[in-house]
Amino acid sequence: MLKKSIIAFLLMGQVFALESIWTDLTKSRNRIARYPHIIKLLIEKEMYHTAVPYVKEYLVTYKGRTNKDFERLFEKVVSKVGDRQFVLLPEQYLSKIDSPTLKYLLAKKLLKRRKYKEALQTLNGTIPAGHPVKAFSLHLEGMAFTMQRGFRAAISAFERCVDMSTSSDDEVRARQLQINHDYCLAGIARVKYEQKKLDDAELSFIDVDKRSYIWPELLIEEAWNSYYKGDYNRTLGKLVTYKAPVLNYIVNPEINVLKALSYFKLCLYDDMSKIIDDHYAEFDKSKQVIDKMIARKHSLEWYFNFINSFVDGKKYYDPLTNKVLRNVSKDPAFIQLFQSYKAGLREISNIKKVRNRRLRKILAINLKDSLMLQQKLIGSYTKRTFKLVSAQLEKSFIGLSYLRLEALNARKAKLYSGITDTGARGDIKYLKRNSKQYFWSFNGEFWADEMGDYVFALRSECQ
After folding, report:
1. What is the mean pLDDT of the segment spanning 135-154?
2. Does 197 have pLDDT greater than 70?
C-alpha cells in the first residue's frame, strides 16, 4: 500500500510540474520570456520533441538579451532531437541570438550551401573550448578548410577535433562524439589523399577502427588510394571485403567500377568482363524498379512509411530495394533521426497525464508538429538515398561501357602483336608484403580481424 502511495505521489508531482506551464502561457505579460522556463520543465520530463516548437518560437520572436539558461537548454534539446530540425530555420534567425550552438548550426547550413568562407567566419572564435558543440564545430572547420584547399589548417582542425571528441556519460552523446571522432580521423586521411601523399593517407585511414560506424564507407576510399599508388592487387583485396556477409548491406556501384578498372590495369580482360557482366545482371532491372518509384514523386511521408515498414520487418520483391533500405537503416545519420523519432512517440504518455484539457491539446499539437517534421526528415533522407543510388548506377553503366570498349581495343592490339600469355596466374611472388603480412589462399572465408587487409597476388599480363 505504501509503495502505491509513493508512486501516486510521484505521478502527481509530474502532473503539477506540467500544469504550471499553463500559468506561464496565460498569466505572464511577456509570454515569450517564459519559454526557457517552459522548455526546462519539458526537458525535466524528457519531452524534448514537445519542447521543439517553443525553442523555435523563442529563436524567431525573442528580442533582447537571451535568458542565461537558454543556451544550455537549447543544446540539450539539439543533442536529443538532432540538429536537422533547427538547421531548416532561415539564416537570419540562426544568427539573431549570440549562441555557440546557433553559430554551429548556422555554419553547418552555410557549409551545405558551399559558402565555406562564411562558415569559417561564423565559427571563428565564437565557440568556447569547453562548449559541448566545440568538437563538432572543429569537424566543420576541417571540412571547410579542406574544400578551400587550406590543407594545413584543415589537418590542425581535424586533429583538435579528435582530441576533443572524448566520451560522455550520456549514451546518445557518447555515440555522436565517437562518430565525430572517426570522421575527423577520416578527414586527416582525406586531406593527405588530396595532397597526393598516398603513403601517409594509407596509414591515416588505418587509424579508423574497423568497428566504427563509418569504416565500411572508408574502405572504398582506401581502395582508391591503393589504386593511385599503382597497387592494384591491394585495391582488389580491399574491395573483396565488401563480399563479407557482415557488409552485405552496402550499396555502392563504384565498387564494381574500381574492380573493373584494376583488372583493366593488370590487363586481365576476362576478369574485367565478368565484373561488368555481373554488374549489369545484378543492377539493370533493379535500377528500372527504383527509377519508376522515384518517377511517381511520392511524398516524404510515403518514404517515411516505406523505411518504417522495412524496419518493422516488411521485405519487398526487388533485392536492390531491400538492400538500399537496409543500407539506410544502418547509416549513423538515419539511426539518430529514427531513434529520436521513436523517443518522441514515448512523450505521448506524459501528455495524456495532463489534467488541463486546453494545455493537453497545446502540448499534443506541439509534439505532433515536431514528430511530423521528423517524419519528413527521415523520408527526405530515404528518398535522397534512392536518388543517389540511381545516379550512381547510371554513372557506373556509362563508365563500365566505356571501359569495355577500351578493353576491346586493347585485346585487338594484343592479338595483332602475336603475344601469348604464359606463367602462373596467381602466385606469392607477385604479392607485395612486409614481414608482418602473410600469404593466405582465399576461398571465400572472411575473418573479422582481417577485414580490409586482403591483398590479391595476381600477375599483370600487360606487355
Report:
1. 96
2. yes
Enumerate long-range contacts of 105-111, CB under 8 Å, 24 or more apart. 105/78, 107/137, 107/140, 107/144, 108/83, 108/140, 111/140, 111/143, 111/144
Architecture of domain 99-212: Alpha Horseshoe (1.25)
Where in the chain are all domains bearing CATH 1.25.40?
Answer: 99-212
As a whole number, the mean pLDDT across the chain is: 87
* Beta-carbon contacts of residue 68 (< 8 Å; ≥ 6 apart): none
pLDDT at 461: 81
Q: 73-77, 430-434, 443-447, 455-459: which has the highest mean pLDDT?
A: 73-77
